[in-house]
Amino acid sequence: MTQPYYPVPRHGPYQVLPPRYRQLRTFALVAIALMVLTALITVLQSVLMWRSYDEVKNFIFLNLTEEEFESATRTIAGSGWLINILAYFLLGTAIAYLLWLWYARENSDFLNSALAPRPPANPMPPGQGLHRRSAGWVVGAWFCPGVQFWYPLQLVQDIVRASEPLEQPGASNSQQIRALLYSWWAAWVGYWVIILAGLLTATIGTFAFFVQVVESADNRDRTDEFYGFQDVMVKIALWVDIGFSVAALLLIVATVSMTLLMYQVNQWQQQRATPPPMPPVQDYRPPGFPSYRPLS
After folding, report:
1. 53 vs 241: CA distance, rounded Å
2. Average pLDDT, whole number, for the chain?
């Protein structure tokens, strides 16, 4: 049997391909697995930072031999190799999640068009009336300064709303879905604010510490000032460890919330992409038509 023909709209010299549906299960599983591993590595990094706190204090108070001082400079933030692994997992998670987000948006366009197995009462051209932002913002919204604090949330909100079941209008605005959306976004933003603030504080503090070490070595009159600066650095190290621990907890909240949200979107889209069951075929015979009897 031949496939139905759908005319391909044209826009200028280019063809605009009609939307299509993709299974999101694999993309979701990969993204969720990477998110979970990233959260676990973040927790492990937080534990190592607390275990190295005494070493950091000895480093600040210069209670180390020359070899220990060189070793401490390599491990002052916990474990350098683990930080590198965490960065790689964050990158992998970002790629996998953006792929899922991109295809989830395309699916929502398909499911709200006339080509869908269960078309809505008022089908829409791809993207029109469904999303507040164009498709390019699916990637750009996360990296564009300023708008990254609300554009990504709007993108996910629009995808969730465009994926809700036709039989349950307003399901995307339920208390459960809103709790998942806002807990994910608040935790995600809080995580990055704490991480960036902690990295900036630690970088500036470390640079200022070495400057103070050099200046106090050249000028003995600044010894008392250096001692006071050491106390400040110990407090900064403590607050950095506390901040990273809070960030790890926020990342766990964001991971759980987004996992549940992705599962719900996948379920809704799969439900709408499944063709409705065919009505049973009735055996109709005109009046007086002889009944069928198989040949013996």
Report:
1. 8
2. 80
